Fold this protein.
Amino acid sequence: MNPFKTHTGVAAPLRRTNIDTDQICAAQFLKRITKTGYEDALFAEWRKDDDFVLNQPVYKDTSILVVGANFGTGSSREHAVWALRDYGIKVIIGSSFADIFRGNSGKQGMLLAVLTPDEVEKIFALIEANPGLKLTVDLESTTVTCGDKVFNFSIDSFTRYKLLEGLDEIGVTLKYEEDILAFESKRPAWKARI
């Protein structure tokens, strides 16, 4: 993963609550055997509607989604995160996210910025009044800047650390490779090796 410090990009308003992973990436796309190339799967059914927000020309370069509560609910399919990532989404701003979706997002380097429902509503209003508005999300200061407004978001400290360092769980483990090897070298030969 690449380290995530700050990101500035066009924000699209997705004013829907309880968006589940089957809506984000439908089951027919799960037959693929790769972990990339899912950009066409993102909201595939919804994108058949010309009025869908991501079909609007002003949002063609969207890299930030602002979403309703309980985003990513439903199944544990990691494909939903892959579809968002492959489409170019770097940040999702919302008031709440499903637990498994949140975990999968952090593992793929995608930042989920949690704000209060009132703050999310203020951002919706700003970007709907100014289509194509760019937001800046700063992970180091945990802020979202939207026009002249600045909002502090929350994120768990371990996910924040991994994103800032550009590490997945294997990368975190490998930071302790010398300690692991030293421990293993002292284990009796009759015990299993890791």
About this structure: The mean pLDDT is 93. The CA atoms of residues 21 and 72 lie 5 Å apart. The beta strands are 6-14, 62-67, 91-94, 111-114, 134-138, 143-146, 149-152. Helices lie at 21-24, 79-87, 99-107, 117-129, 157-165, 169-174, 177-186.
